[in-house]
Write a structure and sequence with these properties.
260 residues; alpha/beta; Rossmann fold; 7-stranded parallel beta sheet; 8 helices; binds nicotinamide-adenine-dinucleotide
Length: 260
C-alpha cells in the first residue's frame, strides 16, 4: 500500500520522528530523514535503514526554523523521488518558563519550528499531491494541542495552532484524495522529555523516578509513557488507504490525559 511511495519526516534523527521514519521505511516507503545530530551517527542510521528495508533513505540537515530551508528540502524530495506522498511534520522543541519571563527568542523559535515549518512544508508539498490526487499530511501535535499546562505558553500556542492548521488544510483538500490529520501524544520518553524529567527532579530535589511518577505523568492516567512504536503505528495507519476518510481529525494517544 505504501510501497514505493515517498515520505518526509521532519525532526527524524531522534525520538518519535525516528520511530515514524523506521515504520514508514518498513512499509516500503522511501524516506527523507531530517534533523540535527552527529553527522557520522546520522549517516550510519540512514545507511542502516536503507539496507534493512531495501528503500532509498535520504537525509537533509534543513533547519525547520528557516522557511527557505524547509521549502528547499521538500523540493529536493519531489525532484529526487518524483513526489512527496506522505508528509509528517514532526520537528519540535520545548522551553518551559512563566509567560512573563518567557525569552522572546525562545517563543519565536518554538513557533517557527513547531508550527510555521508545517505551514511551509505543506504549502510546497500540496500542489504535487493535488496533481496526483493522493497525499497524506500528518502533523505530530500533542495533548498540548488540545489542553494547556502552565509555563508552556509557546508550546501550547504552537500545538493548538498546528491542530487548527490541520483542520483548515483538511477542508481545503477534502475530496481530492488528500488527508490531513494531527496526532496528539501524551508524554513519550524521548530526549525532549528526558530534559524535563531532569529539570523537574533538580528543581524539586527529588529522584528521577519521583519526577516521572509524581510530576511528569501526573496528568497521564495510564501512568505509563506512550511508546514511540504506538505513535509510529498510528501514523502508518493514517498514511494508508484504510484511513482515506479520516481527515481534519486530532487523534489523542495519551493514556487518557485529555479524557479528563
Ligand atoms: P526529540 O527531541 O527526541 O526529537 C526532536 C527532533 O527534531 C530531533 O530529530 C531534532 O534534531 C529535530 N529538530 C529540532 N529542532 C530542529 C530544527 N530546527 N530543524 C530540524 N529538526 C529539528 O523530540 P520528540 O519527543 O521525539 O518530539 C517529536 C515531536 O513530538 C515534537 O513535535 C514534539 O513536540 C512532539 N511530542 C512529543 C511528546 C513527548 O512526550 N516526547 C509528546 C507530545 C508531542
Amino acid at each position: 500500500m505504501l510501497k514505493g511511495k515517498s515520505a518526509i519526516v521532519t525532526g527524524s534523527t531522534s525520538g518519535i520522528g525516528l520511530g515514524i521514519a523506521r515504520s514508514l521505511a518498513a512499509q516500503g516507503c522511501n524516506v527523507m530523514l531530517n534533523g540535527f545530530g552527529d553527522a557520522t551517527q546520522i549517516e550510519k542510521l540512514r545507511a542502516a535503514l536503507a539496507a534493512e528495508h531495501k528503500v532509498t533513505v535520504l537525509y537533509s540537515s534543513a533547519d525547520m526554523a528557516k522557511p527557505l530551508e524547509v521549502a528547499a528540502m521538500v523540493d529536493q524530495v519531489a525532484r529526487r523521488f518524483g513526489s512527496v506522498d506522505v508528509l509528517v511534520n514532526n520537528a519540535g522543541v520545548q522551553h518551559v518558563a512563566p509567560v512573563d519571563e518567557f525569552p522572546v527568542e525562545k517563543w519565536d523559535q518554538i513557533l517557527a519550528i513547531n508550527l510555521s515549518s508545517a505551514f511551509h512544508a505543506i504549502r510546497i508539498a500540496l500542489p504535487g499531491m493535488r496533481a496526483r490526487n493522493w497525499g497524506r499530511i500528518i502533523n505530530i501535535a500533542s495533548a498540548h494541542g488540545l489542553v494547556a499546562s502552565p509555563f508552556k505558553s509557546a508550546y501550547v500556542a504552537a500545538k493548538h495552532g498546528l491542530v487548527g492548521l490541520t483542520k483548515s488544510v483538511a477542508l481545503e483538500v477534502a475530496g481530492k484524495g488528500i488527508t490531513c490529520n494531527a496526532v496528539c501524544p501524551g508524554y513519550v520518553l524521548t530526549p525532549l522529555v528526558e530534559t524535563q524529567i531532569q529539570d523537574r527532579a533538580k528543581e524539586r530535589g527529588i529522584s528521577r523516578e519521583d519526577a516521572i511518577n509524581n510530576v511528569i505523568l501526573e496528568r497521564q492516567p495510564s501512568k505509563e509513557f506512550v511508546k514511540i512504536e504506538e505513535i509510529a503505528a498510528l501514523t502508518v495507519f493514517l498514511a494508508g488507504d484504510a484511513a482515506a476518510s479520516i481527515t481534519g481529525a486530532a487523534y489523542s494517544i495519551d493514556g487518557g490525559w485529555t479524557a479528563q
